[in-house]
What we know:
Blueprint: H1 30-38, H2 44-70, H3 72-77, H4 80-107, H5 118-147, H6 172-187, H7 191-228
Helix pairs in contact: 2-4, 2-7, 4-7, 5-6, 6-7
Amino acid sequence: MSGESLLDRKPAPDCCGGFNNLEFSQMDVSVLWELWSLVDLTEPRFCVAVIAIIFNPFFWNVVARWEHRTRGLTRLFGGPYVACYSLAVLILLLNVYRSHSVTVAMKGQSRWDLLENLQVYYAGAALMAVGSLLVISSFLALGVTGTFLGDYFGILMDQKVTGFPFNVMDNPMYWGSTANYLGLALMNASPIGIVLTAVVALSYKVAIAYEGPFTQEIYRQRSQRCKHK
C-alpha cells in the first residue's frame, strides 16, 4: 500500500475539460421533442397493448406457481402432460392477442419520418429474423414442456440445455421475442412500437427475476431427493 495520502494526490487530468465545460443548452433536443409529439401514452389502443404485455407473464407465473403448490391443473386435466399442454395453448393464444394489440396500437399512431428509410427497414427485418431464430431454436431445444413451464407440473428435464441458442445468451426465447417487437416497430417506423418494445423488455426482465430462482429451487429439491434415495 502506498504511503501517499489520497488527499495529497493531485487530481487526474480532466479529459475534454470535464462535464462543467459542456454546453447542454446547445444540445439539439428537437429529435426528442419530435418523438414525444408523435407518442400518445393515453390513447386507448396503446393502453390495451400495455395491459396485454404486462398481463401475459404475470398470468403464466401465477398459474404455474399455483399448479406447483396445489397440482390443481393436473387433477383437473387428469395428468401433468395434458395440463401443461393446455396451459401452453392458452399462453400461445394470449401471445397472439398481445401481438395483435401491439400491431393495432402501432397502426393507430403516427409514423416517424426519421425511421422512414430503407436502412431502418432492413435493420428491423434483420432483427425479426434473428429474433425468430432465437425463439424457434429455443422451442426446438426445450420442447413443449420445457418451453411452457413443465417444471412447475413436475415434468423435469434430465439435464440443463446448453446447446444453441442457450450457449449464446440466457433466456433466448424472451430476448428473441423482444427483438421481434423491436424489428416490427422499426419496419413500421413506429415510435409507439419502440415504447411498447421497452415495455415488453421490462416485463420479461421482471418475469426472469421471478422465474429463474423458483425454477432453480425446483431442481435443487429434486437433486436433494435423489441424494436421499
